[in-house]
# Entry
Amino acid sequence: MRVVLVPFSCLYLLAGLCQAAEPARIGITVGALDNPFYQALARGAVQAAHSLNPAVRVTSLSANFTLAQQQRQMRELIAQKVDLILLGAVDSHAIAPQVRAARAAGITVVAVDVDAPHVDGTVKSDNRQAGEIVCRYLAQRLHGQGRLLIQGGPPVTSVSERIAGCRAALATFPGITTINDGANGLGSSLGGQRAMQRDLQRFTRIDAVFATNDRQALGTEKALDAAGLRQVLIGAVDGSPDIERALKLPGRIVASASQSPYLIGREAVLLGMRLRRGDGGQRLVTVPVALVTRANLANYHGWQSLVPPSGSR
# Structure
């Protein structure tokens, strides 16, 4: 079952948790802490944790999108006997043994951003909706005719859900031909650039690209610039500060589905503590997304906002 957030005051959100046991140690392991998305997520988590217990100790770890590294980090957090782990899985399935081990040790595990097996709860964006609204916008900008490339990413559920949403949106545009060669943009600018360079060698015509995150979109734009292709439209998912800057200038990047990583981190801590308290409520919190374009950029509050994004769906 899906829960859609609505704005609440921070005091209201925290009031019901003050009676719960205060968290003493919290561990966070996510894809890459050099990524502003995960930085904002971690800040939201840390601030929520300190609101519950000013003396809480939070350990934030960067897995660098490497499964073996994240597995080691999970073992480290188990050894530290943390109360709660926020897990941004780099592989939505292979991390299962470490999740089971954490729960067996009495640690509550909340998946953030992407799904993971056997967790106690999950907080993530509506990734299918993100793919839908971006690809619908690209198709409309193409007037329902053209070739749209879907550029994939790491093997996590957020990527597969975004691609599924994109395909669902494009199904209503019979004049759009979908290209998807299974390329993995690796969630990075360099990965997106290299994936686009390979696709430009394979496909003689590309009218638009759906990149599954903003960093890949930025790399894709670099590859298109180098090839002298000025007319290809690019849409992505994140609503990152880099995309805000890109949308303030002329360019191929025309849209991004905004996420709220600060809210995801904050809600994950609050959900984790509710679960530790023994509440039988919802175990899935879905944070809304909205389309950001040049037309509505002035009203976009960015990743640090405490208010879920609003805009075109």
Summary: The longest helix spans residues 36-52. The chain has two domains: 10-125+261-288, 127-258.
